[in-house]
Design brief:
By secondary structure, the chain is α+β, with helices and mostly antiparallel strands. It has helices spanning 3-10, 25-33, 41-49, 90-96, 150-155; strands at residues 15-17, 53-55, 60-62, 74-76, 79-80, 105-110, 116-120, 129-132, 143-147. A 7-stranded antiparallel β-sheet has the order 1-2-5-6-7-8-9. A two-stranded antiparallel ribbon has the order 3-4. The two termini are 17 Å apart. This is SMI1/KNR4 family protein. Residues 33-155 form the Knr4/Smi1-like domain.
Length: 158
């Protein structure tokens, strides 16, 4: 799916873009990649176009792997982090969740109730998208696969 088709899909929703685009998003993303993170091109295109943004419609995504507590298979996606050097900055979110997430997983969006949507930035699984349940601890599985790519995440919106 080309980025134009992704943009067409997102244009179906009310999106409140919070990014001021005062910084060059791709340069900011390169700084994040200097930490050894492999960021997928579809996610970079999204950040370049939308940056920090709220999806004001009720948007849900399917989980391919499902926590036992979840009724149904859907989780909400509310806010995508940007590069604005504020509370919703990707770099700040990486620092905030460094002790709770595996080092190859970075938070990219808020789900409901403190949960996160995360991106795998490892070389092997680059671009896979996960749901992180903030309440599961002590060795319990807390990451659940949503999609193989960021594009697939966006295509799956309901």
């Amino acid at each position: 799916m080309s980025f134009k088709r992704i943009k067409d899909k997102l244009d179906q929703y009310t999106i409140d873009i919070r990014s001021t685009k005062t910084n060059n998003p791709l340069n900011e993303m390169k700084k994040i990649e200097e930490n050894g993170f492999h960021i997928s091109s579809d996610y970079k295109s999204f950040i370049n176009e939308y940056g920090e943004c709220w999806i004001e419609d009720n948007v849900y995504t399917h989980l391919r792997e499902k926590p036992v507590w979840l009724v149904g298979e859907l989780v909400p996606v509310e806010l995508f982090y940007g590069l604005e050097q504020n509370d919703y900055d990707i770099s700040e979110s990486i620092k905030t969740y460094k002790e709770q997430l595996p080092e190859q997983i970075i938070p990219i969006a808020d789900a409901d109730g403190g949960d996160l949507i995360c991106l795998d930035v490892s070389e092997i699984n680059q671009g896979k998208i996960y749901f992180w349940d903030h309440e599961l601890r002590d060795g319990e599985q807390d990451l659940f696969l949503i999609a193989d790519t960021f594009t697939d995440l966006l295509k799956g919106y309901l």
